[in-house]
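Researcher: Go.
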Amino acid sequence: MVKITDVARRAGVSPSTVSYALSGKRPISEETRRRVEEAIRELGYRPHAGARALASSKSNVLALVVPLRAGIHVPTVMQFAVSVVTTARRYDHDVLLLTQEEGEEGLSRVTDTALVDALIVMDVQLHDPRIPLLRSLDRSSVMIGFPASAEGLTCIDLDFKAAGEACVEHLARLGHRTVALVGSPPEVYVRQTAFAQRVVQGFTAAADRNGLASTVHPCEAAPDAAREVAERLLREQPALTGVVVHNEPLLEPLIDAFEQLGLRVPADLSVTAICPAELAESQRVPVTSVAVPSAEVGTRAVELLMRKLGGAAVPEATLLAPRMTERGSTARRAVA
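Model: Structure:
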């Protein structure tokens, strides 16, 4: 590992001069600075995060707060995390991943020290208990998700309400009159997780607007639960011809369950989903879907945070419009 003494030796200066060149705490000549920077490039020297923090009062570390609670679909969450990490590296920042469900205490533990410069907070609830602390912190933050009141916060996410509406509008245009939403696991709704609540709002509003019969069914993310919800839907809504799925791991087993019950997709039942595009594309019958733009959201969350750290004004709300891709799982309703 290259040390500051190695850089000093290559540049022909003292280690303290290298430190001053990095921190800017004392003036040095342009010629000396040029030699130090050249030595750093040649040797591939990277200042230790702790040393950077002492020198500049900044750690160049962001905290990504994503509590891995019950009902969370970890693969999708990790897509957001990878995007945050790779974008942060472009800005010479590392990312500290906080996965414990600690609420305000976990945030306080991190922000009471010089461990991180700023925070990105995920799994936002409508009435999130972390919000008062985020509003009072002297550190910048961005929320991936929208609480009920976003005043004084910086929030970004897919417009999940519009996504729910888009799925129903698509089914309505195809002539479907009875639809159902198979949603997230029940505990996600109990916590009032914002994105799940917004999908329900959009689904219900669009169904009412189009005069469709509709129901909402939270569902555990398990094959047995998929079979049970499919049976219940056909028992309670025998005229059902359109389904919206907002539960990533349930997509394949739910389609299988309907087909085992005698409904062909899309001849008898049209299926849409809100999920990552690659998941929709990979199904035996590729699914018409609104993509969850995890890479774009993660990237733009970091960019908003970097602008805030640089003292620039940023919008409080950034809602990404839903993008629907039609595939083979939806068709015009057959009329007997």
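Model: The chain has a mean pLDDT of 90.
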